[in-house]
Specification:
Distance between the termini: 43 Å
CATH class of the largest domain: Alpha Beta
Helix content: 40-55%
Strand order of the largest sheet: 4-5-8-9
Order of helices and strands: HEHHHHHHHEHEHHHEHHEEHEHEHEHHH
Number of strands: 9
Oligomer: single chain
Largest sheet: 4 strands, parallel
Low-confidence stretches: 1-5
Mean pLDDT: 96
CATH architecture of the largest domain: Alpha-Beta Barrel
Structural class: mainly alpha
Length: 472
């Protein structure tokens, strides 16, 4: 590849523009920039690190698995077929075609967090010396292929290079966690990768696959699930296995955070009706809300931190879902209410020693109105940092401005990258560290914090805070 002038990444990117504040932010960021990465919630396949095979090609590394990247390209008229959405391996010609789609539309990403991450990946990790464009697409593609063929760009080498202290995956309760077990038993592997229990599909009788899913749950647990008590026991048994395999948290995402309890008799009646296919929509919703409360009870028993990120309209475009499946860019946020909905759970478990409840949202209006006040009283509640559509620089700043007066920094979760794109992990964490450095610098220049205290806070929220909240 012909190397022109190095494509610049400004060392002050994302730091405040005001000179005095920027100078403080530089020093704070410098204290956190080289800290190990704690990734308590994401979607990287543990088999990637177990097999440690070279990444197949640039398109399946940067584009096809990442709905962050494909969304705007699709909105510009590029079909998901042309982007090979979800593909894990492509021929060289096909991969090159997909890569061209991104480079030809690079300007579409201007101002987005996706572009911030991609720029950092391409420059800092892969040493790409020129910006993507229609004219540079093939040169960059060839450069990336050369890099991917090198041993230093295999998954384990990058894991070490990224200095990932711990990486949490997201796993189906019926998974045998074989890749996790094999990775932990591999004497050549020194990293830490832990599973996360994600039971949504088993708690929602309104899903068309629920009856079959519950049958699989019972089979995996070795428990008869023809009755409600067996079903609950099966969930408890699978959680026990996850804890044995190193899990420290359970992750939940439903239409709302309702958790009103049912009596055992009523729960059993609705469960039987759901198995028979005769439960009403209202009954199915009541059962799902009851089971979210049961998940909190189980977290108090087994110690798994409980995270909830509700209110997403999944698979908004049915034809796309039917053709390409879930997680292909058309999950759309909706509004959500926490205070009244969570009261039954918090009445029972909000002061339970050891219960950790991390509340995420895609609805910014609840940050100061609901989440910060809840976390400011209940010792169990932590405010999840901005994620998904909100893990962008401006939203991260708004988050700190909205909640800090009420809860400070200690009642927040630490950064969550929530990514399927392995190489984006360091870029996402660095973005969060830069934004937090800028916000803390503002408090310093306003004489609301001393710089040494601000630096200590930045160091804590870059790592140890997530370890405490997610029990890592």
């Amino acid at each position: 590849m012909s190397h022109g002038p190095q494509w610049p990444l400004d060392p002050d990117r994302l730091l405040p523009a005001e000179p005095a504040q920027r100078a403080v932010a530089r020093r704070i960021h410098r204290a956190t920039a080289e800290l190990p990465i704690v990734s308590p919630h994401g979607h990287v396949d543990p088999g990637l690190l177990l097999r440690d095979e070279p990444f197949a090609d640039p398109a399946t590394l940067f584009i096809t698995p990442d709905h962050y990247v494909t969304r705007l390209l699709h909105a510009d008229g590029v079909s998901l077929d042309d982007l090979a959405a979800g593909a894990t391996e492509l021929s060289e010609d096909r991969s090159r075609q997909v890569w061209r789609h991104l480079c030809e539309r690079w300007t579409l990403l201007a101002g987005t967090s996706v572009r911030t991450w991609l720029e950092a990946e391409l420059v800092d990790i892969f040493e790409v010396p020129e910006r993507p464009s229609a004219g540079s697409a093939d040169r960059i593609f060839d450069h990336l292929c050369e890099r991917l063929a090198e041993p230093t760009y295999r998954p384990r080498a990058l894991f070490e290079r990224f200095d990932i202290s711990v990486l949490a995956t997201t796993d189906d309760p019926c998974s045998d966690l074989a890749d996790h077990a094999a990775l932990a038993a591999d004497p050549s592997w020194q990293g830490r990768v832990v599973p996360t229990f994600r039971p949504d599909r088993y708690l929602e009788p309104e899903r068309s696959t629920w009856v079959d899913d519950v049958a699989r749950l019972g089979e995996a647990a070795g428990v008869e699930v023809g009755h409600y008590r067996g079903y609950v026991a099966a969930l408890e048994e699978r959680r026990r296995l996850f804890v044995e395999r190193g899990a420290t948290s359970a992750d939940h995402s439903h239409a709302d955070v309702g958790c009103a309890p049912l009596t055992d008799a009523e729960a059993g009646r609705i469960y039987a009706a759901a198995l028979a296919g005769s439960a009403t929509e209202a009954e199915a919703t009541a059962f799902r809300r009851h089971m979210l409360g049961e998940m909190a009870r189980m977290s108090c028993d087994d110690g798994l931190a409980m995270t909830i990120h509700p209110a997403v309209s999944r698979n908004h475009h049915t034809p796309t879902f039917e053709r390409h499946g879930p997680d292909t860019g058309h999950d759309i946020p909706t509004t959500v209410e926490f205070t009244r909905a969570l009261r039954p759970m918090l009445e029972r478990y909000g002061t339970h020693p050891g219960f950790h409840l991390v509340l995420f949202t895609l609805d910014e209006t609840v940050w100061s109105r609901e989440l910060a006040p809840l976390a400011g009283f209940y010792p169990s509640v932590f405010v999840g940092v901005p994620w998904w559509f909100l893990d962008a620089p401006d939203a991260m700043r708004r988050f700190r401005e909205a909640i800090t007066d009420t809860v400070g920094f200690s009642r927040t979760s630490g950064f969550v990258d929530d990514t399927r794109a392995f190489c984006s992990i360091p870029a996402r964490h660095d973005t969060a560290r830069r934004i937090d450095a800028g916000y803390l610098a503002q408090l310093v220049v306003e004489h609301r914090l001393d710089e040494d205290e601000a630096t200590a806070i930045a160091i804590d929220i870059a790592g140890d805070q997530a370890r405490r909240v997610f029990k890592l």
